[in-house]
Amino acid sequence: MAAEVLSDKRYSSSSDVWSFGVVLWEIMTRGKTPYEDVLPENMLNYLTTGHRLPQPKNCPDDL
């Protein structure tokens, strides 16, 4: 979930775009689990301190 959804429990077009980006990441990594080393209770802090999913190796910069 997007950080604003975790903190405010409000969905928006911005949170939808973030979620779509995570789905694209899962596709480009052939089904890897995003943020697999982050516990759910730590996710909001992880995201609000600037951590993001890394660009997959086979993902072109244009995408």
TrEMBL record:
Gene3D superfamilies xref list: Transferase(Phosphotransferase) domain 1 (1.10.510.10)
Residue ranges occupied by any Protein kinase domain in the UniProt entry: 1-63
Matching Pfam families: PK_Tyr_Ser-Thr
GO MF term list: ATP binding; transmembrane receptor protein tyrosine kinase activity
PROSITE patterns recorded: PROTEIN_KINASE_DOM (PS50011)
GO terms, biological process: cell surface receptor protein tyrosine kinase signaling pathway
InterPro entries the UniProt entry points to: Kinase-like_dom_sf, Prot_kinase_dom, RTK, Ser-Thr/Tyr_kinase_cat_dom
A GO cellular-component term linked to this record: receptor complex
Protein name, entry field: Protein kinase domain-containing protein
Organism: Amphimedon queenslandica
